[in-house]
Amino acid sequence: MTDGKDFNKHSMDIEQAPQSQPSKFLDDDGRPRRTGTLVTASAHIVTAVIGSGVLSLAWAIAQLGWVAGPAVLMAFSFITYYTSTLLADGYRAPGPVNGARNYTYMDVVRAHLGGLKVQLCGLAQYGNLVGVTIGYTITASISMVAVKRSNCFHRHGHDHAPCSISNYPFMIIFAAIQLVLSQIPNFHKLWWLSIMAAVMSFAYSTIGVGLSIARVAGGAHVRTSLTGTSVGVDVAGSEKVWRSFQAIGDIAFAYAYSTVLIEIQDTLRSEIPENKVMKKASFVGVSTTTLFYMLCGCVGYAAFGNDAPGNFLTGFGFYEPFWLIDFANICIVIHLVGAYQVFAQPIFGFVEKLCNMKWPENKLITTEHAINIPLVGPYHISFFRLLWRTVYVIVTAVVAMIFPFFNDFLSLIGAASFYPLTVYFPIEIYISQAKIPKYSFTWIWLKILTWACLFVSLVAAAGSVQGLAQEVKKYKPFKTQS
């Protein structure tokens, strides 16, 4: 076949495309000079990938068992890495200027596919990003509550103390922090926040694994099996099916970062072609997170067996040492503070760009005011940015208060975003860019992969919707407590 060779040649042409002479402060496209590296891109990916999804993996493995659980984890890992390398090649595309940049996921789809698919991509991407920010608000509040409950259990004992605490004040606290951080102008200013968040994610994952190992070493008597939870003992037959579907959605959510891949790639400096650096960063990020996921999921299952809690650091499978549980949950909160911004910044940028294009004469939207901040330097404030981002954070917090369901919500987001954003669009972009002939061997197996992932997403979504329906039946908004 010649399509592979043609594509390699085409990729080299893109990578070696002549660029206009950049200045000291501006890149070849006239924008402020990008400074991202392999380290910062890897940190962004780890921040995006190792999120609240890691906390539910012990529960997910418990539903699927020792055989299917790790197999599904590895399958999602391979698919995510493979399709991310395909998407990375779409950052620069031939056009009026050879090697022109595509700044967002939608821009990549517009350059390679066009038509209705651009709108469908936007709907899937930004809908998913909104869902993730809501999910992170829920998760952060659960971890804050867990700190208070841990101290309560330590003082009064966990056998008799109810220690019921409302999540809602903590959702408000998390939203207040995001109100401040959301005024960071763009993704390029977030590298320090992502590195700090990545360190936090390693910290709480390591603590969770360490506590699980200690529990196993201590001789905890738990039931595990090759097929997970037992029908008739742990769950009913229908519940086993629905929970297995939901577990697949949880694992899909745990690997979701394609939604921000192009935005991360757009932070990289151009001395080395961005797609080469992004592929290395994807390998570092996905392989690192897979290692942690395997440890958290499998060791967590070994520690708790078929009774694994939905969130193994806040579901109180562990009570002592209480100070270490507190520290782990504080790490989760700090991590989610940064992760929220990684997922929210593309939404902010999209809306602000759209409004600038639609109302270029509107002073409220286009005018920025310089304010000199001591020890920081000049900061440019936009009243439109201040207003719109504030409204967004408040709305996500209110929705989180109305639907504070951890596992079901994460599973639904994972199911809804995995197929279109992680699989369908990257593969379609690759087929178009590489000009792969229809019905060739490569075309056929890529289509088989696409359809298989669609089926997986549909069954995961079905399990999530069923789980949410069950939760809603017994839930009273603004009254239920942890």
Written account of the structure:
This protein is mainly alpha-helical and 482 residues long. It has a single domain, classed as Amino acid/polyamine transporter I (Up-down Bundle), CATH 1.20.1740. It has 15 helices and four strands. The chain starts with a helix and ends in a 9-residue tail after the last helix. Residues 1-20 have low confidence and may be disordered.
How do the helices and strands line up, and which of them pair or pack?
Blueprint: H1 3-15, H2 38-49, H3 57-88, E1 92-93, E2 100-101, H4 105-112, H5 116-156, H6 168-181, H7 191-217, H8 237-254, H9 261-265, H10 274-304, H11 322-358, H12 363-366, E3 369-373, E4 377-381, H13 383-402, H14 406-434, H15 441-473
Antiparallel strand pairs: 1-2, 3-4
Helix pairs in contact: 2-7, 2-10, 3-8, 3-10, 3-14, 4-5, 5-6, 5-11, 5-13, 5-14, 6-11, 6-13, 7-10, 7-11, 8-14, 8-15, 14-15
Let me know the CATH homologous superfamily.
Amino acid/polyamine transporter I
Which series of helices and strands comes N to C?
Answer: HHHEEHHHHHHHHHEEHHH
The Rg value, from CA coordinates, equals 23 Å
Integer average pLDDT:
80
Tell me what portion of residues adopts beta-strand conformation: under 5%
Question: What does the overall shape look like?
Answer: globular
| Poorly predicted runs | 1-20
- Helix count from the secondary structure assignment: 15
Percent range of helical residues: 55-70%
